[in-house]
Amino acid sequence: MITLTVPPTFAGWRSAARKALQEGIPPGEILWEEAGGDAPLLDLFTLEPALPASIQSPVRVPPAFMELAKRVACHRAPTRWAILYRALWRITHGEPHLLDVFVDSDVHQLMGMDKAVRRDVHKMRAFVRFREVTHPEGVWSVAWFEPAHLIVELNASFFVDRFAGMRWSILTPDRCVHWDGESLGFSPGVDRSAAPGEDAVEDLWRTYYSHIFNPARVKIHAMQAEMPKHYWKNLPEAALIPDLLRAAPGRVAEMLSRSLIKSAPAESRETIISEVADWESLKESASTCQACPLYKNATQTVFGEGPRSARIVLLGEQPGDQEDIQGRPFVGPAGQLLDRALTEAGIDRKECYVTNSVKHFKWEPRGKRRIHEKPNKTEVSACKPWWKAELALVRPSVLICLGATAAQTVFDRDVRVLAERGTVVETVHAAKTLITVHPSSLLRISDPEQREHAYRRFVEDLTLVL
Ligand code: URA
Predict the structure, then answer these.
(1) 439 pocket-lining for ligand 1 (C-beta < 6 Å)
(2) Ligand 1 geometric centre to CA of 413 (Å)
(3) 410-451: pLDDT as tens digits
(4) pLDDT reading at 47 higher than 60
(5) Three-state SS string across 123-158, please?
(6) Is 323 in the pocket of ligand 1 (CB under 6 A)?
(7) Best mutation site among 318, 322, 390, 408 for ligand 1, i.e. most ligand atoms within 8 A of its Cβ?
(8) pLDDT at residue number 371
(9) Superfamily, domain 294-463
(10) Which of 125, 290, 385, 415 could pair with 407 as two cysteines, CB 3.0-4.6 Å apart?
(11) pTM of the predicted protein model
């Protein structure tokens, strides 16, 4: 076994790898060890002396491999040198198209490292924030950044191009890069304490960020994927994020209930609501909806529930007395009948998303009882953005409209349920959109035989979407 101690740089590895290849040393016989030191990682800015002919490799290595190797060299894993050499050996020993074999373990590992490095390069471009400091020669912009990998040199030319007119330094724990307006230089890594602290530039960023932050557009997962928490501590605006996120649903609700909900045309509300990106925010925003007067007499908004990955969405009319109290759709007598019918039709309610066309209970008092009252057209259309946003998030392949109110709001026209029931058509909301009766209509049939007959037909309708 030979131990090759190389500077942990692309140039260092390349030169050692060429020699090992030349000598015909198989990968299994080399132990790659990293030497200390602060040599540049890449030789992108210095020309390596031409190799003497005697040790120039007679074999050709695809340029794509060398490009990949340059990036993989910036990964922190100490195993990268051995994997790179093994791949190089295989490419030059009968597997010239190795890089096309994605399932190969070496290729897979190299691709994974390459991806991590590229991602880190992108993060550095996105999250470096300069702070201005006064330097004897004038204003100098300094940024502190903690890359996941050794990407400072790989990224330097990007910053030169982008900030050519400024004089700047980017300090990192691994390596620092400096641009004085004319030439680029590198120096060893430094401790964070070397970086300047807060100043007015940061306040500017913070103000800017809180202004461009649109609570209706918050996509928390995407945001964290794009701006991982690791980087937050060095971003002045990141300190605002937790508060902004916490306030987001409320701010959306406020936006909606302020001018928009009350006075804006339904389409504007619909646009805003459709931009609320996640279900929790949507539900929270709906909880303060005042788009029509129904909120005044209802206990609460009854929002939809069920898996967001549901294949089937059931759309009812509006919550009833029980639903209004419990805050959940279809939990009263109609809901129980619906559950039974679904089971008989072979549909598991737990796998369905269940919601209503109108989210507040409309009722009138009769003695001590609250009697259901049909919502009018204005109320139904005020609520339309909510169920549309729910459907846009769930994206079901089946939408079951239970009763006339649901069918009319979905099809945007008068629907005679008894004439159109049992038809399955494609709509913008779902490939299979079914119109059927509302389960409460079955409960109102007093004759047991007729009720049983109507129930059977209801179950039959439900089976049409299986
Ligand atoms: N009727 C409906 O339309 N929805 C419910 O949630 C309950 C009864």
Answers:
(1) no
(2) 21
(3) 999 999 999 999 989 999 999 999 999 999 999 999 999 999
(4) no
(5) HHHHHCCCEEEEECCEEEEEEECCCCCCCHHHHHHH
(6) yes
(7) 318
(8) 94
(9) Uracil-DNA glycosylase-like domain (3.40.470.10)
(10) 415
(11) 0.51
